[in-house]
Amino acid sequence: MIDTIKQQIKECLEKYYKEKYDIEANIIVEEPKNPAMGDIALPMFTMIKTLKKPVPEITSEAAEVIKKSFDIVEAINPTGPFINIILNKESLSSSILKAVFKEKEAFGSSNIGNGQTIVLDYSSPNIAKSFSVGHLRSTMIGNSLKLILNRCGYKTVSINYLGDWGTQFGKMITAIEHWGDIEQIKKDPINELSKLYVRINEEEKEHPELAEESREAFRKIELGEEKYVNLWKWIREESLKESEEIYKLLNVSFDSYNGEAFYNDKMDPVIEELEAKNLLVEDDGAKIVDLGEDIAPALIKRSDGGTLYITRDLAAVFWRKKEYNFSKALYVVGGEQKLHFTQLKMVLEKMGYKELADSIYHINFGLVLKDGKKMSTRKGNVVKLYDILEQAIDASYKQIEEKNPQLPNKEEIAKKVGVAAVVFNDLKNFRGFDYEFDINQMVRFDGLTGPYLQYTSVRINSILDGNTFDIENMDTKLFIKAHYFDIVRQVSAFKQIVEKASEEFSPSVIAKYLLSVAQSFNKFYSLEKINASDEKVRNTNFALAYAVRTVINEGLKLLGIDPVEKM
Question: Residue 453: in which H helix or E strand, if any?
Fold first, then answer.
């Protein structure tokens, strides 16, 4: 609501300057660095330069326009080239809290995305490998972005672009042929296949001929040899079973599981178009698209006729555009793939599809580190995500048992708290940064954690439980106090925060906001008796607590985290 007032002041002054001076003004409206100066500040440097009038004359003129147009403005204090505006905190705070009470779970929703479709490509694990902590980032960043974009009115299509094709499957089959015990593999498919994958990568160092065997095995899959295709299909099915367990625990779902293999019969038209447009160049028997001196060429077809990742991605872009008519396509993929997406966009541009290329966004993210090192399936330096989630759930259960041993449904609550710990720890970090995975820190009920936010919401639940309040009968004079109005201001910003997170494709914007709101409320809790004896004070405190719980719970949901009522 405060942001709405800022926008209205901006539009009001710009209209005034257009009508009086025929000037296309661009008024900046911001918050003062020092809150004591006011609630809103307008730096008037541009108008001073444009109108060439004395500073006091310009600021007084603008102040008069604002006073006449906005009842919510209590006072205006021009200070040099700045116009500092003080809002009527009683009226404003009452309106904001009433809006939360009226809109409830819908508070903070936006319509900026109405009529637009966004496709999100995320998670996308390689089959035949354990779902590791390293997969967590793409999965949860993508899931959160989907929820945030939905909240802003966008229609979304979530795609799990499975890594179910490529030479790694030739490696897997070669490893099975050399060292695999099929009966043993069937007992524990993913663990056994992961061990074989690690082994063949080690063996290749001493026996480089294995690499050629692997390529030949994959060629047999591509050529449709029944034995190899059936083995590939079985590996894919077993991998999906494990992934579905993880997704169920994380409460993540997808609209499509069309992986790389889905596009095998859709690549030839792309290659033919590249050839027709004279974009393919032969290089040592391979087919490439030359992208200039500053960037490596895009390898479209290997010398043995095999296709590559970028060939399938080109086919996928065209198919998805036709199928979903998206306005934007987000690829939630690690920062290491920057070159790939640069090449993809450049190839599309060269093909004459600049608008399509401009609609593609690489939502990059940093690494999850283990002891300061990148986790690697090839080297076996990997932590299974399911094991980590189980550890977090177990640690949460122990804390709940210690704090509230009589709590019913402890197992179910511990599951939500443990998952929240892992998910929030990932999303609170700006996605572009690497971070060290430390389960002991993330499960704490205090500090910058998911359980801390859930616990703050639970604290408010316990305050409001069994109590009613009359939002029409508040002591609005309390909002003049800084620790009251600070919370109101933060609650008011929820919609703006959600929109900012959608525009920057950054869930951490919401995570940091929620921590700030929770910290402000817990400070408030230490200063005030919420369930006060005075009815008006009590109504005010309850309304404020209700608003805080609303934005915390709705914010957690946007991160893919379930709030809890007790813990």
Answer: helix 450-464
